[in-house]
Amino acid sequence: MKLLSNLIFWKSKGKVKFNRGERVRISSYEKIKETLDERGCYEGLIFMESMAKFCGGDYEVLREVKWLYDEYSKKMLRCKDIVVLKDLVCNGKGILDGKDCDRSCPYFWKTTWLEKE
Amino acid sequence: MRLEQGNLQLVKRRDLGYICQYTGMTDIGRELNRIAKFYQIVLRVYPAIKRRVRKWCYNFRKKSDRGLDMGKIINENQPADSSGDRLEIGDMVKVLSYSQIKSTLNDKGYFKGLTFQESMEKYCNNTYEVLKIPQYVLDKGGRKINRCKDVVILRGLYCDGKGMLLEEGCDMCCLHYWKTDWLKKMV
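Above: the input entities. Below: the structure tokens describing the complete assembly.
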């Protein structure tokens, strides 16, 4: 069963760049800005303004994100090169037209925005 | 409760671009191909049958227990130790025992609209810090704004996402939501 799921879900074999518990440094804001398009996204992932304050800091990797659950379409989505860092959650300030969103989602970071120590 | 006016403004802003990462979820990932979709359906068949059988059994039992005093049963299911204290950010709280929390849940595993996941069981009887007290929350991929009541988020208690798929699981690492009735304020 596991082999079958490996074949069907295109599991990456031995290409894990960032392991759980590993310390990483977030690149400088200027470097990250260079990677963004006119919408402020890199490969579909938006870099939010509230994420800028964490640039240059050292953080611990919580998890590599391979699977997402899209609540709107109610489907599982496959993604790559995204990690979640420990204790970095969205404060949601001013998102809801002046009101704060208190959902506290963890930020997603593209691996190109991170440097291994 | 939904803020209809807020929803409209949110839709307008979405035309210009995403307001946060959560609203742009569909662009981050890619959909599964047909074989993978079929495999995913196959994986979901067994739990779906199990759920339905459990529901039928419950309904059947409910019909046969019509003669019982339902008022008594409902009163017994009230929270055993509701703190009643108003929680604030930074407060230390103790999560009640699993048996106490379980007594508050209905047959679907919900308490006042909030589900208690299996992965939350390991945090019972331990003390944690209150990270946030949510009031307004984006829902359905940013299409709706919901208002919450008597809910808190505790620091460092992430969902492990197990159970979304058989082996894989969701990797979003969302923080668990806790009803204040499940918590006891530490002095």
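Note for the figure: Confidence is low (pLDDT under 50) at residues 1-14, 66-83 of chain B.
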